[in-house]
Design goal:
The chain is built from eight helices and seven strands, in the order αααβαβαββαβααββ. It has 236 residues and is α/β, with parallel strands linked by helices. It has a single domain, classed as Vaccinia Virus protein VP39 (Rossmann fold, 3-Layer(aba) Sandwich), CATH 3.40.50. Strands 3-2-1-4-5-7-6 form a seven-stranded mixed sheet, with helices on both faces. A hairpin with a 2-residue loop joins β6 and β7. α2 packs parallel to α5 and α3 packs parallel to α4. It is globular, with a radius of gyration of 17 Å.
């Protein structure tokens, strides 16, 4: 990535989504939708540089079997969806996002695999338009760490509702820094949130367990100074 090119981009520095308590779901959805419309044009040029290692690890560990019903929640520009759908020609992979602009870019990306069986749908993670027990696998990359705590709880409940018994969850979030350089980068990401797509460090394991998921594995990855956590869980 050429540092000089960063100076030419029109980064949105206002309207940043907050994860403060007291923000209603409607306000959160409206703010996130508007903000991601503003950063969509730079998302793919920045976010993979701090997230690709953790996302790739999560997809590998989920080990989707060809023929499964898979939901990519908060699909964004389709970074994970491309991989999930590419290896699931006998099943179905559904990508959901709140932002129409991010979905437009995901559709463009998915043209690389024109014969894939997939769908893209605009929807709120806190109110998914699917029946109970619809999916074998739910994947979520850098979504749950963007949502306010109340919305995060509701999104996890929705993930549980649409997942079949014995189904698998793979979630990736930013997590808390362990080293001085990482703390510096987290500070920069708070000031310039496009660096991490608006994500904030969270500890997700207790929330997964409180929702009824069994956390089976986890790992952390530090890429470009930002530390991410990968969580693997099942629904008993």
């Amino acid at each position: 990535m050429n540092p000089k090119s960063l100076l030419r981009w029109r980064f949105p520095l206002t309207g940043i989504p907050r994860t403060a308590r007291g923000v209603t779901s409607a306000q959160s959805a409206s703010t996130l939708r508007a903000w991601y419309a503003r950063i969509a044009h730079v998302y793919d040029a920045v976010v993979p540089y701090v997230s690709e290692e953790a996302r790739t690890e999560a997809l590998s560990r989920l080990n989707v079997t060809n023929g499964e019903q898979v939901l990519d929640l908060g699909t964004g520009t389709g970074l994970a969806l491309l991989s999930l759908a590419g290896g699931n020609s006998k099943g179905w992979t559904e990508g959901v996002d709140l932002s129409t602009e991010m979905l437009r870019r995901a559709r463009r990306r998915m043209k690389r695999i024109p014969h894939a069986r997939y769908g893209l749908r605009q929807a709120d993670a806190t109110s998914l338009p699917y029946p109970d027990d619809s999916f074998d696998v739910v994947c979520s990359s850098y979504l749950l760490d963007v949502l306010p705590p109340t919305d995060r709880h509701e999104a996890l409940q929705e993930m549980k509702r649409v997942l079949r018994s014995g189904g698998r969850v793979g979630a990736v979030t930013l997590t808390h820094p362990e080293r001085a350089l990482e703390r510096l980068w987290v500070g920069m990401a708070r000031a310039l949130p496009f660096l991490a797509g608006g994500a904030r460090p969270v500890t997700l394991r207790p929330s997964l367990q409180d929702t009824g998921f069994i956390v089976t594995d986890g790992s952390t990855h530090c890429q470009a100074g930002l530390r991410s956590a990968v969580y693997l869980a099942t629904l008993g």
